[in-house]
Amino acid sequence: MDKSHRFNTDLLAAIETAHLLDFSEVIVAGALERKESRGAHARTDFPKRDDENWLKHTLAKKTDVGPSLSYKPVYVDWERYPPQERKY
Amino acid sequence: MAPVSATIRVQRFNPDTDDKPYYDNFDLTPERDTTVLDALHMIKAEQDGSLTFRRSCRHAICGSCAMNVNGHNILVCKTPLQDVLNKNGRVTIRPLPYLPVIKDLVVDRSSFWEQYLRVKPWLIPPEDIPEKEFRVSPEEVTALNNAETCIMCGACYSACQVIGLTKGYIGPHALLKAFLRVKDPRDAASAERLADLAGSDGVYRCHTIFNCIDACPKDLNPTQAIETLRKLAQKRLAYERSRVQRQRSLQNPIVVD
Amino acid sequence: MYKSTGFISFVLRRFTGVALVLYLFTHMWVIGSVNSGPEAFDARLNLVQTPFFKLAEIALLAAVVYHAFDGIRLIIVHYFDVTEYRKSLFYAIFAISAILVIAGGIPILLFALEG
Lengths: 88, 257, 115
Hints:
The structure holds three protein chains of three kinds.
Chain A: H1 9-33, H2 51-54, E1 56-63, E2 66-73
Antiparallel strand pairs in A: 1-2
Chain B: E1 6-12, E2 22-28, H1 36-46, E3 66-69, E4 72-75, H2 81-84, E5 90-94, E6 101-103, E7 106-107, H3 110-118, H4 138-143, H5 145-148, H6 155-159, H7 161-165, H8 172-182, H9 190-197, H10 211-215, H11 222-234, H12 236-248
Parallel strand pairs in B: 1-5
Antiparallel strand pairs in B: 1-2, 3-4, 3-5, 6-7
Helix pairs in contact in B: 3-8, 8-9, 8-11, 9-12
Chain C: H1 5-32, H2 38-47, H3 51-79, H4 86-114
Helix pairs in contact in C: 1-3, 3-4
């Protein structure tokens, strides 16, 4: 293990791993709440896209008991680019 | 056929604790497709976590992992270990030469970036920019191919003996970028650029050693760019006039015969 | 240290260049003595007629020939897009220089041994 005070990439990796854990928790919490499938967020229990309830951003705030979620509407230009499901 | 084991000889140096650089040997068992960077990762993960090196993308586009392997500057991420092992299964890895070592294989590239900024590596557009877009012919784009895929890894800069001898020299990487801007039909400052480049630290400081071509992991040719800049610098006002002429037609469609 | 044919050519070019400048001063030192009268000039000429200086003339020939052909090589690199053949070019001018130095060196050597 690198314990030096100069260009310590071991320490950097440890800090980055801690951040990865934080963000993993945020992603999992947000994904569990989002009861639909959208793009890369694919759920077998909710395989359909749900614009009615879930056309919104998930915001996460750090608290002592884990991330607390809130939501923010998505800006959509309904005139020119109405959202529609992707079909391939 | 892959040898059973390989010995990686790495130059180590931590200025805080070591008086001078020394070499450490690490033995490991490589696969057929192990790159030199993979080997360094294996050493860091399994043998010595204090081994320090820069790396990021692992596919030769970020330019972080340029190192001196067996005396040649290469990107370790795109070089298979088997290609650099000698017949005894040994390879020697050193930091980039002529640059101050921060720790182990990490070098201080401040001078590299300072020289890069000196050539103003950004586009300086003409005053009357076209309403829609600049029209540039395929030939003009092809002429820039030599310079535009540079990833700023520093392999050429640190292979150049002139850099080792003359601290003020702009360097092959920055001269290549200058070439890119001077030859760019949209750039309006070619005369000033060429006047700067013709100074004592510029294109005429190059001793045509060709190490930059040998070192470049992207097969670019800084020497040819420098020779081109030398030729243009000799007739820079005429070149500037031809640029102005060209820029008047930048918004017109390209006529292909 | 980054070794390559380009680096060898650079070192040889620098070395021969500096050597030729030093030679020029020696040359002027010998020729300049003509100002001090015929005796001084003869004395200095005798000084440089020794076998050592005759052998040194071979080195002078080598320096002049290599430096000149290296210059021609750089002119070729400047005016033609031949960086691809950089190694062959270096070997070529090195071979030409070697042949010329041998061809010119043998008479000098014979003359030196005679004298």
